[in-house]
Design brief:
This protein has two domains: 57 residues, no CATH class; 77 residues. Helix 2 runs antiparallel to helix 3. The protein is 48% helix and 8% strand. It is mainly α and 161 residues long. It contains three helices and three strands; from the N terminus they run αβββαα.
């Protein structure tokens, strides 16, 4: 990250934390070259940043200890989706996700069959063990990815109303 990005992140953090008074901000660099923004000098490699208008109000005027503002209400002319149309969209989404889940399950079954409990059959081009071991490791990775995909698709399907 460059210094400007770090400063912007620091300012955003100060705004979120509810800082309303002027505050000194230091840019410190550690022995490994990592940069950190802080409100106190932590060593020799810290320099105070000159930030004009260092008074930063919290977003929405909220202060610590106050209740958050009510959620924004959509304008009257905001487009609405009829419930029947939303149900149709949800049904389409469910069908697509179910199709993807079935495809991913078939792929996972094929990978597990080829993996053969960690001992897949050797191919003609795998006379040395290194190529064979690389393929076994690749199959193992592919199985793990396919399992993650199946779980993600199941979660998505569960989230459909």
């Amino acid at each position: 990250m460059n210094t400007r990005t770090l400063v912007l992140h620091g300012l955003a953090l100060l705004a979120v934390s509810g800082a309303a008074q002027a505050q000194q901000i230091f840019l410190c660099v550690d022995a490994d070259g990592r940069k950190e923004l802080t409100d106190s000098r932590k060593g020799k490699n810290c320099k105070m940043l000159d930030l004009p208008g260092a008074t930063i109000p919290a977003p929405g005027g909220a202060r610590r200890g106050t209740t958050p503002a009510a959620p924004a209400v959509a304008p009257a002319n905001f487009p609405r989706v009829e419930s029947s149309e939303q149900k149709a969209r949800d049904a389409d989404r469910r069908a697509i996700l179910t199709d993807e889940l079935n495809t991913e399950n078939r792929k996972l079954a094929d990978l597990r069959k080829e993996f053969n409990n960690g001992e897949p059959e050797r191919r003609a081009d795998e006379r040395n063990s290194t190529k064979y071991q690389e393929r076994v490791a690749g199959l193992k990775d592919s199985i793990a990815r396919a399992e993650q995909n199946v779980e993600a698709l199941k979660r998505e399907l569960a989230n459909i109303k």
